[in-house]
Amino acid sequence: MTGDPPFEFAWFKDGQKLVDIRGVSIRHIDDFTSNLVISKVDADSNGNYTCRVSNSAGIDEKSAILSVKDAPQISPFLFQRTEFRYAGIRQCAVMIGDPPFEFTWFKDGQKLTNIHGVSIGKFDDFTSNLVISKVDAGSNGNYTCKVANNAGLDEKSAMLSVKDAPIIGPFHFSGELDVGMRATVVCAVMRGEPPFNSHGTKMDNS
């Protein structure tokens, strides 16, 4: 702003002199101006930057802190299937990024909150848990975890598709049966989703 050329410009990061390296360049615009250019700013660019100018009469310097956060990146998650039930706890974990984070869970595009049978908890600064206390066919849907910080956001989704276990209606043998007669009964599934594996069992009541 004031002073008589010629000037000598020098740039520093955290006390270390900067030179033209990959991603960082220093440009002298004119006798009074030097530019520092960072081609791609990310969390590795964070630090205390200093511009120092000197001439035969003395020196001056000014500094500024660069503090950049990485946008979050979430690890994919799945619902693990058992025969008719799925694990009811899922974790949404941030693998890359800088806190604080805001976690939000959705089911089929609708925001989830702590309601009957569903709870959302923060395990730590990088992890949120979704707990479904009783998983059944009514829990089916597309579940999404969205994480945001000041630098951006990320989201991952997983489909929960669970079948109800079969429930068979009662049956009985009617009438008097003699040896050699044919008897027929119906085994009917009252609730549950096919395909089913049918197995007949004879009980020995003797």
From TrEMBL:
Family annotation (InterPro entries): Cell_Adh-Cytoskel_Orgn, Ig-like_dom, Ig-like_dom_sf, Ig-like_fold, Ig_I-set, Ig_sub, Ig_sub2
One cellular component term from this protein's GO annotations in UniProt: plasma membrane
Keyword Signal recorded: yes
GO molecular function annotation: axon guidance receptor activity
Domain Ig-like, residue spans: 1-67, 72-161
Domain of life: Eukaryota
Gene Ontology terms: biological process: homophilic cell adhesion via plasma membrane adhesion molecules; synapse organization
Protein keywords: Disulfide bond, Immunoglobulin domain, Signal
Protein name: Titin
Native source species: Caerostris extrusa (Bark spider)
Gene assigned in the entry: Ttn
